[in-house]
Amino acid sequence: MTALRPPAAQAERQARLADAYSRAAAIAARHGKSYHLATRLLTPDRRPAVHALYAAARTADDLVDLPGPDPAAALTGWSRALLAELESGWSEDPVRLALVHTVRRYGIPVEHLVDFLAAMSSDLDVTGYADLAALDRYMWGSAAVIGLQVLPVLGTAAGVPREEAEPYAIALGEAFQLTNFLRDVAEDADRGRVYLPADLMAAHGVTREQLAEKRHDARFAALMREMVAVVRRRYDDAAPGTPLLAPESRDCVRAATALYGGILTAIERADYRVLDRRVGVSRPRRLAVFARRLTAAQLARVRVTMAKPKSRSSTGAQAMRGPQIADGS
Asked: Which CATH number fits the domain that encloses residue 270?
């Protein structure tokens, strides 16, 4: 495969990169309303990178969830192209270009991307998980490494090594993923997949056929009640990690946690009826959470600006109004 090279002209490189990040932001806004709203609390230099990570994950996921005639070939081709582009530092695909630039700028380990792509590939063949331990192994690639990819962008507080914050980033990625699993039981069943542990389903007398037929009953409600408790414990596991983050990134994480945690509350209030409807957080509720965190986020930025040289951000990357690409990168 011939290595791709960026355009020779600096202005064209910057324009292509700006367009790539703009497209990534549009994907995040369209498909991840709660997530995208929370990212508005980030500093402007961090926000595009998080959009890039989300857009790439969503694109790869859609190759599996919204498959064409040969989803395996499509995912394999997309994955091989990405890995080659990470080596060359450039892509002609806007979503992958934003991802390549983000990965190289923040030093995100490529193995996290490899593990994510492996998890997406497994979705083509694996349709269920025997127990929570098996589901956790799948979520290493589908969720835990997402938390580890985002962590370098968020940054950590002064004196906090990234390794100290990593277990909490993993737990939060898993909590978000588990929340999606509970919300999307019916949608996943339509695709022939079940992300509820089979042993818990059996203990409550719930079958895959029941999920496929979208039959809500007391047994399914009891299963969901137990799973909601499992997910809440995962959020509890993640909570000590927020104070370890860079101060100006904490309110984004707090908002995202409140919004995704709100999905669990909505499931409970719906009496766990997720088989015949999509449960979510209302727009007024999303905006209320955002407004509550906005002032705190602004104050954090002011304190950081006053405490640090203006030419640097707390991630260690140069502060800038938007993503840029240097000559030779």
From this structure: 1.10.600.10
